[in-house]
């Protein structure tokens, strides 16, 4: 009797073990299938998103026709000059999110990237002077100005720029822009592991445009009759050379001399500031007749 009960118990345990094994196998298959479905969804999503990116990018350059021009007008009205970069940045952001789905640091990196995008938009608005030219806030005027001129920060960054300039004036707005840029870049480098040369390059790019606005507004007399586009092109060329100097010196200080990157950045910034002043003084400033 006891032997019979023992065999029954062993048989029952065996069936239970087999049932658990089947359940575990089914769960693994379900998870694997879910992972495959998710990967397939992401791949299809990225393909459609890439097609949308190409379409929007072409719209911005007027090669799609009337419909493309209408779409481009909406993008420039919303984002201003940054509309040129919006299709590419949107694609990269979504691809980055798909590749790091569920990663908290990835979400924080994207948030810091959004802050930098808005900061860049504010800088574009400062350069175009759309928000600063308004006596009172007019979202329709701001939208139309950015749409027609394909410049400024659009209603997104332009609205923020208007509020900042109303309460802080131009200098205060520039300080806020610089502060937000520095904080975002420190977070990207220190907390989220972004390569210091990349964050340094981003900060330099932001500072180039801010420096352009301040130089032409408060420092150098370039003449009202001069071509602003030509001035900006010269400024960008000089700044690209400055970026090269910035990156090389940062690499030498951090990699070869083993100096902390923030201390290196301060010293390198001083060197590049001297370069910027001399080149802009010699090339951009109006020659006295």
Which keywords apply here?
289 residues, mainly alpha, 9 helices
Proportion of beta-strand residues = under 5%
Report the mean per-residue pLDDT as an integer: 76
Overall outline: globular
Question: How many H/I helical runs?
Answer: 9
Task: Write up this protein.
By secondary structure, this protein is mainly α. It has a domain at 218-289. The protein contains nine helices and no strands. It is globular, with a radius of gyration of 28 Å. The termini are far apart. The model has no long low-confidence stretch (mean pLDDT 76).
Short overview:
The chain has 289 residues and is an all-alpha fold. It has helices at residues 2-60, 66-79, 86-99, 104-128, 139-149, 154-191, 196-219, 228-256, 261-283.
Topology diagram in text:
Blueprint: H1 2-60, H2 66-79, H3 86-99, H4 104-128, H5 139-149, H6 154-191, H7 196-219, H8 228-256, H9 261-283
